[in-house]
Each structure stands twice: as C-alpha cells, then as structure tokens.
Amino acid sequence: MADLRGRTALVSGAGRGIGAAIARACDAAGARVALVARTESELRAVAMELDNDPLVITADLETADGPDLAAEAALEAFDGQLDVLVNNAGVGLRKDSHLVTVDELDHLWRVNVRSALLLTAAVLPAMVAQKRGSIVSISSISGLRGAPRRSIYAATKAALDGMTRAIAMEYGPAGIRANSVAPGVVETAMWTENLAKPGVVEALLDLIPTRRLSTPEEVADVVVFLASDAARSITGEVIAADGGIRSTVNLYPKV
Predict the structure, then answer these.
(1) Fewer CB within 10 Å: N-end or C-end of the chain?
(2) Which of 72, 74, 69 lies closest to 84 in space, CA to CA?
(3) Exposed, middle or buried, 93 (CB in 10 Å: 0-12/13-18/19+)?
C-alpha cells in the first residue's frame, strides 16, 4: 500500500463520490486531509470516517476567490505544509453540442478548469518552498478520446490534462510532480440518471474489457499511488482508470 504518513493533502470536491473515496484513501494511507467542497454537512459526514485529524473547509471553488481561500485555510491549519493536492471538483454535462448555452459552457469552465488552475497556483509556492509536492487532477477518458454529447465536458477535461503536463515540466526541477487520472464509467451520482436508462448498463459492459463498472475506491487507489513516493518517477502522465474502455472502437454508443 502507498504510504502517506506524515504528509498533508487537500482534496477538492471531497463531499461525495470519487472525492470522498480519495479523502478516505489518503487518510487510510496516513495523510492528514483537508476536505473542500460547498456543502459542509457532506464534508463533515466524510470527515467523521477519517482518523488523522481531518480538516473541513467549506468553499465555493467556482468563485474567483474560492480556491485561494481554501488553499489559505489548509496551509494555515497545516503550518504551511502541503504535500498533495487533488483537483477533483467537477461537474458533468450531456447535451447535443449545438444546444449548449454560453452559461453552461462558462459554468463547466469555472468548476472543472479554472478552480483547478487557481487552486494549483495557490499551493505551488508552499510546495516549491518545501521542495516536494504531488498534484493529481481527476480528468476523464472523455478528454482523451471524446464522446458523443460531451464536447464541453471533454474540452474541460482535456484542459486539465494540458495543465498537468505543463506543471510537470515547469515545476519538476523544484521537486513537484503532476499527473492526471482519467476514470471511465464510475458508479457515482454523476452517472446515476444515465445508468438507470434501459439498456445503458448492458451497452457499456459490452464495451468495457473487464465487463464491470469502476468504483470510486478503485480510482482513489490510483490517486494515492500517484501522490506517494512509490510514484516518484512518474510525472506529466494521464493514467486511464477505466477498465480498458478507452481502447474500444465506439465509446459510449447510445448513452
């Protein structure tokens, strides 16, 4: 198991789904975790499951100052030390591309991309000062391959992967690594409505080589590995945690 003992981590979007699983996994690996999201009750429910004096930070990362305020709160509580940043906060959108509105486009950009850029920028000085750090961003195989009715979502996730590669190149000499994890179909609230449609699960399972959907915990395991020294030679990578669906010919047909 990856070892994060003595380390601190900030996980955005930590109130549920993949973010909550990542917070639990980081805690289980020994890290002290700052959980960030808008809904305090969800964060506190997750925090109650953790053992290493977790920190709850309520912040709206979609706002211009939300990421800075969240980073400041974490750094103050952690005495200026931050070893791991997980950019997980995100929203999805399934819609015909020609029907997407400007408001929808701006919303996805602010939540999926701008918040990660600002949060990363806010913690980099502390990581540079301590000469180490691991930044892991949750992107998507939609950003790697594209998918029908997901053009805006795919664009935001591809942007995260671009940020990952650039940060890895720019800050590698300072001891900072940056990687992305690209999940496929994960059993979370983001997929609940779509998976309930007749035939969708069957169609997806036909495409996934492992013939099963991924769980948030499986994605979290990859994140913790990348955050740890076990992955000390890995940076600038986008790692698909998707059961192999990215290698199939037709991605998400009819879903």
Answers:
(1) N
(2) 74
(3) middle
Which residues are designated catalytic? 153, 157
Does 2 fall in a domain?
no
The answer to whether residue 155 sits within a structural domain is yes
Residue 177 and residue 66: Cα distance in Å, rounded?
24
Q: What is the pLDDT of residues 82-120, one digit of tens each?
A: 999 999 999 988 888 899 999 999 999 999 999 999 999
**255 located within any domain:** no
Torsion angle of C-alpha atoms 89, 251, 215, 218, degrees rounded to 10: -80
pLDDT digits (tens, 9 = 90+) for 133-178: 999 999 998 888 877 888 899 999 999 999 999 999 999 999 999 9
Residues 223, 221: Cα–Cα separation, whole Å:
5
Q: What is the 3-state secondary structure (H, E, C) of the chain?
A: CCCCCCCEEEEECCCCHHHHHHHHHHHHCCCEEEEEECCHHHHHHHHCCCCCCCEEEECCCCCCCHHHHHHHHHHHHCCCCCCEEEECCCCCCCCCHHHCCHHHHHHHHHHHHHHHHHHHHHHHHHHHHHCCEEEEEECCHHHHHCCCCCHHHHHHHHHHHHHHHHHHHHHHHHCEEEEEEEECCECCHHHHHHHCCCCHHHHHHHHCCCCCCECHHHHHHHHHHHHCHHHCCCCCCEEEECCCHHHCCCCCCCC
The domain of 96 spans 8-247
Instruction: Give the span between the Cα atoms of 29 and 224, in whole angstroms.
Output: 8
